[in-house]
Design goal:
The structure is a homodimer.
Chain A lengths: L12 H14 L6 H12 L6 H12 L5 H13 L3 E4 L4 E4 L9 E6 L5 E5 L1 H13 L3 E12 L1 H4 L2
Parallel strand pairs in A: 3-5
Antiparallel strand pairs in A: 1-2, 3-4
Helix pairs in contact in A: 1-2, 2-3, 3-4
The structure holds a DNA duplex.
DNA sequence: ATTCGTATGTTATATTGTAACTCGTTTGCC
DNA sequence: GGCAAACGAGTTACAATATAACATACGAAT
């Protein structure tokens, strides 16, 4: 089976941070220190991170106690602005590697190690959207995730 | 777009309860009073119910305090036995209307009223499974849900 | 200077989910 | 019958996730 190809850029490190900042400001929102800290913490995790994980990381990097509360607010903002995604079946968040373009994305989450890979396949997500529409749902936002075992964990 | 058709039976009321009991006993599990109560409570909700919602309903029907704890155990059993499904994006559960056959199912959840409809489309879910496999994931269990607005709530 | 909007802090609380241990009943075995 | 094993459920405690309500800080607009 063929995967939909991405010809847009995947950002990382500083480039990702810059792309995120630009995206957020283009939305008319501010790129504050706090938001930068939260984004940085989020981007440094190599698997989906809970709001509390992020609160802890930010607390460390700031040398003061940052409440989960504030992190939730910023994560909500990020999700709305397409800077981050929520992984529903893990109650956790990941940074979006290409905040400039909209996709329904598909997460593959390893039940063993928690590693999560993110694929885009607009034909699949489009099919799901269409199915929802023909059932009378408007403004559909597909949540497509797969729990399973990744190839690394399979070799045990 | 065409929907995969279901030619199997949709159960309701007593028939559903009977089908659930048969399925569970065929799995080698017991159909106890407590399990019957939980199933009944679950089946009576017209939208996904949290474990705590169910605990409350069961408490009422039994005239005594039933802890959420016990309900969770039974819900897990039900999910494993295909008597119920978990709606990940709502942290809630629904009864499976046809416990005798396996499907990856797709939930459409109205963000306004909470109503949830359940569709099966094996070509869509199969596509998601395949995408996961070709990314190296084994034993894939798709979670496909759509948040949106149902046709009833659209007319406001 | 005052007011307003926005971002964040602070505290409290609600909701969802597990862990650990106990008790009672049934079943099978001697 | 007596006993142990297996299972279902009760009970208590707690962990993890999420939201609500209100206070404070600060810059921009009037």
């Amino acid at each position: 089976m063929f995967m939909a190809r991405h010809d847009h850029q995947l950002h990382e490190g500083e480039a990702l941070k810059k792309a995120a900042r630009e995206r957020l400001t283009r939305e008319g929102e501010q790129w504050t220190d706090m938001r930068a800290s939260v984004f940085e913490a989020l981007a440094h995790f190599d698997k989906p991170a809970s709001a509390y994980d992020i609160a802890e990381a930010v607390s460390k990097s700031q040398g003061r106690r940052v409440a989960a509360n504030s992190v939730y607010r910023i994560l909500d903002l990020f999700v709305n602005a397409n800077l981050a995604r929520r992984v529903e079946s893990a109650n956790a968040y990941v940074a979006n590697q290409h905040p400039e373009c909209l996709h329904d994305c598909i997460f593959l989450i390893c039940d063993t190690c928690g590693q999560t890979v993110h694929i885009d396949d607009d034909s699949l997500s489009g099919g799901v959207r269409e199915a929802a529409r023909s059932a009378g749902f408007s403004a559909p936002r597909p949540v497509i995730e797969v729990r399973g075992t990744c190839s690394d964990c399979e070799h045990d």
